[in-house]
Amino acid sequence: MPKALVIGGSLGGLLAANLLRSIGWKVQVFERVGDDLASRGAGIGTHEELLDVMDRIGIKVDASIGVHPESRTCLDRAGQLQHKMPRPRILSSWGRLYRAMKDAFPVDDYFFDKSLISFTDDASGVTAVFADGTAAQGDLIVGADGIRSTVRAQILPEAQPQYAGYIAWRGLIPESALPEELHREMFAHNMVCYPDGDAATMYAVPGPNNDVRPGHRAYNWVWYHPVSSEGLAALCTDASGVCHGTAIPPALIRPEVIAEMRATARRVIAPQCVQVIDLTEQPFFQAIFDLASPRLFVKRAAILGDAAFVARPHVGMGVTKAALDAESLADALQQCGDIDAALARFNDRQHLFGTRVIARARRVGAHLGAQATKPPETWTPEERHQDPLRMMIESGARLRDVPELIELVRANRGGRAERSDTPMAVVQP
Ligand SMILES: Cc1cc2nc3c(=O)[nH]c(=O)nc-3n(C[C@H](O)[C@H](O)[C@H](O)COP(=O)(O)OP(=O)(O)OC[C@H]3O[C@@H](n4cnc5c(N)ncnc54)[C@H](O)[C@@H]3O)c2cc1C
């Protein structure tokens, strides 16, 4: 039986591991973090194609998978209604998806506290070497180790993440913490606010222990705001003066940084959104990056998910792209019989898909990236003005509404049936 070593046990790694197992491979997953990742918070916008892949793995996709807002509602900076759209996508949470995928995979083949430091790839197969001095052998190594991938750094060192010029402030508050009036106005909807140069989105997600019962859910928010590279270094500097690069643990963010963030929010986004932000005890931020790899494999090492391409999050495609990468890899291995031919086929299919996903995500976030990085006189028309209606349509689109993406998915899937209706827990205020 052929054997795959999957590096990274987050969503991309688990999707690949479960799918490779389903085609008859022996799979081991190696995750750098020391224990269960389920507490990683934050909301995840889903696509039907992600749920298809979960179905294929054998995960039950039912109403508990997420919450379904009644509308996508856009407020202007003053808090007045600008636009309203029906039928937004299902919104789940990272923890809910992780739990389902982790539980589907044999516990004995998932190893925590295993940080890959390098691997060799020769006629006898691949050998992964970990920081604790242990090693593992297989026929294929799959780098699902995220934006700072060690697998990618070894095979394609030229592929480096590029800072996009803005960050995402994020937070999650318990449903019960929302005052009644704010709950009534916001909770049943995906509220968005797109004043020029900023973008906020807020929506209900499953609560602790993936609870979707009214009163037990959470409200998730993301606010994209331009920050220069120098500004980012300052934000990532803790109270003792240590700069943590481009990502700082939430607990180390200085109180004055959070106070300044709250003050800026008051100036630039709708007051209802500010109220939600103010109710958040521990806001945190993530810098937004673009990453495009020139190819998806070298010899017997493949990369997928964020290790391969990182799309700005406005299009809510990261996890779905990881699922489609994993599906394409498993299909190619099953169809080709020969690993080298399969990797070439995987690359032919998914490299173009990743390229198109990030091109679209860059376009949607162009004006945010330009604010702090380019002089206004050099801005392109896309960078100059943010049209809230266009933002709503582009960032809320289903995959099947984006012709350049869905044509590739359909070609890859070769006529496999598409999900037409997903059961969902409609938000009941
Ligand atoms: C603000 C924001 C909002 C987002 N919203 C959405 C959304 O709505 N919908 C959506 O689909 N996506 C969204 N995304 C993107 C999504 O989170 C990612 O695309 C997705 O999590 C990628 O998963 P991954 O498994 O490829 O990488 P990761 O989740 O980064 O996992 C990589 C794993 O590899 C492990 N690892 C790293 N190095 C090593 C090593 N050397 N050895 C062993 N293990 C290692 C890490 O510990 C980690 O667990 C958002 C992202 C951001 C920043």
Helices, strands, pairings?
Blueprint: E1 3-7, H1 11-22, E2 26-30, E3 43-45, H2 48-57, E4 67-68, E5 71-75, E6 81-86, E7 91-93, H3 94-103, E8 110-111, E9 116-122, E10 125-130, E11 135-138, E12 140-143, H4 150-155, E13 162-174, H5 180-186, E14 189-193, E15 199-205, E16 218-226, H6 229-235, H7 255-268, H8 271-278, E17 284-292, E18 297-298, E19 301-303, E20 309-310, H9 318-336, H10 339-364, H11 366-371, H12 381-384, H13 388-396, H14 403-413, E21 425-426
This protein binds flavin-adenine dinucleotide (FAD).
Flavin-adenine dinucleotide binds next to helix 1, strand 3, strand 13 and helix 9.
What general form does the structure show? globular
List all distinct small molecules, including ions and cofactors, that are bound in this structure.
Answer: flavin-adenine dinucleotide
User: How many H/I helical runs?
Assistant: 14
CATH topology of the largest domain: FAD/NAD(P)-binding domain
The number of distinct structural domains comes to: 2
Summarize this structure as a short list of keywords or feature phrases.
14 helices, 2 domains, FAD/NAD(P)-binding domain, binds flavin-adenine dinucleotide, 6-stranded mixed beta sheet, globular
Account of the protein in words:
There is one protein chain. By secondary structure, the chain is α/β, with parallel strands linked by helices. It has two domains: 3-64 and 92-161 and 289-388 and 397-426, 3-Layer(bba) Sandwich (FAD/NAD(P)-binding domain); 165-288, D-Amino Acid Oxidase, Chain A, domain 2, CATH 3.30.9. Helices cover 35% and strands 24% of the residues. It contains 14 helices and 21 strands. It has helices at residues 11-22, 48-57, 94-103, 150-155, 180-186, 229-235, 255-268, 271-278, 318-336, 339-364, 366-371, 381-384, 388-396, 403-413, and strands at 3-7, 26-30, 43-45, 67-68, 71-75, 81-86, 91-93, 110-111, 116-122, 125-130, 135-138, 140-143, 162-174, 189-193, 199-205, 218-226, 284-292, 297-298, 301-303, 309-310, 425-426. The strands form five sheets. It has an eight-stranded mixed beta sheet, with helices on both faces. A hairpin with a 5-residue loop joins strand 14 (189-193) and strand 15. Helix 1 (11-22) packs parallel to helix 3 and helix 10 runs antiparallel to helix 14 (403-413). The longest helix is centred in the C-terminal third of the chain and has 26 residues, at 339-364. It starts with a strand and ends with a strand. 47% of the residues are buried. The mean pLDDT is 93. The structure holds flavin-adenine dinucleotide.
